[in-house]
Amino acid sequence: MFYEPREGHGLPHNPFNAIVTPRPIGWISTRGADGQDNLAPYSFFNAVAYVPPQVMFASTSAKPDRDGTKDSVANIRETGVFCVNVVEFAMRDAMNATSGPWPREVDEFEHAALPREECRVIEAARVAGAPAALECRMTQIVQLAGAANFLVIGEVVGIHMRDDCLVNGMFDITRFRPLARCGYRDYAAVNEVFSLSRPGE
């Protein structure tokens, strides 16, 4: 099968997200200028550079109370900071509870009964007990083609790692089974890993 996206795929559901998988989930916590905390998952998320460490996420829809975008991007525009919380399998239901299009005054930490802790370098909350969290200062917000598509890039200025996830000096993801987004309503958890040496190593 071949199709051009502009002409439609003719399938019951859009296959694009099922093709580009699995995708790590950036559980983005922000705080508005008014002090209101927000927490929302984004599956268009990844690390993009080592030095300095940088990450990106993309927001692709809008809420009527946020001037063409969502709470996360609106808060980052106001404060210039955000935190990426890593989602473990055990937190899947809480993550899903924070994904709804709630009004801006809803605190997703409270809605999902998630404990929070203050970040160390930036003014924002993070998910207490998450396997890892990346405190970030926004460097760019890029408007992409299409309505409400915004790419947010941030420099990682603080890194939290849960002690039980460090094994022999390495961050062991099998200790917490990171959650990944697949197509449709599907998710996956990383249960095992394998290593490959690069040519010449």
TrEMBL record:
SMART domains: Flavin_Reduct. Residues 18-173 form the Flavin reductase like domain. GO terms for molecular function: FMN binding; oxidoreductase activity, acting on the CH-NH group of donors, NAD or NADP as acceptor. InterPro entries: Flavin_Rdtase-like_dom (IPR002563), Split_barrel_FMN-bd (IPR012349). It holds the Pfam family Flavin_Reduct. This is Flavin reductase family protein. It comes from Roseinatronobacter bogoriensis subsp. barguzinensis.
